[in-house]
Amino acid sequence: MMNELNGKKSIDVGGRLRELREERGLSMRAVARRSGLSPNALSMIERSRTSPSVSTLYKIADALEIPITAFFRSEPPRQEIVYRKSTERTRVAFSTGLWEGLGGEAFTGRVEPFLLTLESGGTSGPFGMLHTGHEFVMCLTGQIEYEIEGTIYLLNPGDNLIFAAQLRHSWRNPGDERATAIIVLSGFDKGESPSEFHITSGKKGRSSESQDM
After folding, report:
1. Hey, what domains does the chain have and what are their CATH numbers?
2. Which of 88, 81, 59 is nearest to 71 (CA)?
3. 120 falls in which pLDDT band (50, 70, 90)?
């Protein structure tokens, strides 16, 4: 199982956690209760006294109801030409796969290409995704199954799919071997980062809960 977050830039996870928590008006005690972590552990992370594991970050992301990539989001200088060597990709692992950015985070236009690797049985979780813009997917190896508004499309190597991304959709690897696909998101609203919705802990969503101030 892939369980590492890899990146070339140093990210202040503790500072981002504090910002995200305060943006939502949540106390440390409320986040601790939601995540199952102790307030002391969260305090240590926020003060950068300790580095959280991937599983811990997923618990916190679930508690804050955000994608895990929100902890690593930054605003690099936007460029009209983006060149990425394979060794310089932003990589984010989740419970059954790996997300690899292909430079969209630094591009001036509204397009986000990424490489998705899914272990056998890997899914986008129990709930569908929807966002603005369009989505293109091409299966490179293995099998990728997309469900769009209740219709299932099975992609084998070389098969591709394109659709309006405001249609509720989800994906999974139904095969016995690892699958890879190139996914390109485009035409989304300004300020939106739809690729974040494609990284999941595989956990069910959280019901609304009153905030503990």
Report:
1. 5-71 (1.10.260.40), 86-198 (2.60.120.10)
2. 59
3. very high
